[in-house]
Amino acid sequence: MQTSIESAGLRPGLWRKFVLTLEMIKFEHSIFALPFALTGALLAWREQGFLMEGLGGRLGWIIVAMVAARSAAMAFNRVLDAAIDARNPRTQTRHIPAGLLSRQFGWGFTLAASALFVFAAAMLNPLCLALSPVALGVVLFYSWTKRFTALSHLVLGLSLGIAPAAAWIAMTGALDPRIIWLTAAVLLWTAGFDIIYSCQDVEFDRAAGLFSLPARLGVAHALQLARLFHVLMIVCLAILAAVLNLGIAAAVGIGVVAGLLVYEHRLVRADDLSRVDAAFFTLNGWVSVLFFGFWAGDVLLRR
Known about the structure:
Blueprint: H1 4-7, H2 12-24, H3 34-47, H4 55-80, H5 82-87, H6 103-124, H7 126-145, H8 152-172, H9 180-198, H10 202-208, H11 213-217, H12 219-243, H13 248-267, H14 276-301
């Protein structure tokens, strides 16, 4: 009897590589930045008076561009850091160090995802196409930064933070300075949770000569800085809601995000990092999804 994979015309080996690739790039974590990009697109639509030809198509290409850019960045990171990951007990089981996927495959996937991103940008508008190399450069550059600066967390934040501004440009063909408040919020949110995640590798980073704020400041002070970043994120969201004259649903969404971030920081202490994964993966996924839900509701209900 044929398996479901064989009956679908896929060879088991090809299917396995496909699954391994999704695992390597942590495809499910696209949910971190995508809701913020879609929020930027909805806010742009609102500012255009809810009148926009081809709205569904634009949203579709925004999603393709976002997923492609993130996939390229993750694959590039895995290729570039393969030797480092092989030495770190926490990461030595990743796909390239473990021999599940080759460096050559990682390079090929990075190029393919980058090309798809540029194509999606071209399908949106000329400004998106013109800016696509800049955006791609930012998201790929992050992987180098841990080699020379402890501010690498902020570069990662910028990589995700440009998503809502890029979505605004995709919808309107121009950049409205007000959306920069959302870029700043996502930057601070991402930098904060990346600092928390990096606390796991303090000893390894110091021994390997890598740079991170936990390695430089110590775990306790780094966690305090992460809290400050998340407080500033809430401030940026409140300012954005005010300048765009959003309503009660958006305000409630900010409150929900603030509550989740408070809980996230209660999960992690300098002397107990055992729940970092729950703080990093689960809670931050809920932050982005619930934020989008409340803000989208505010936009659509007041249409």
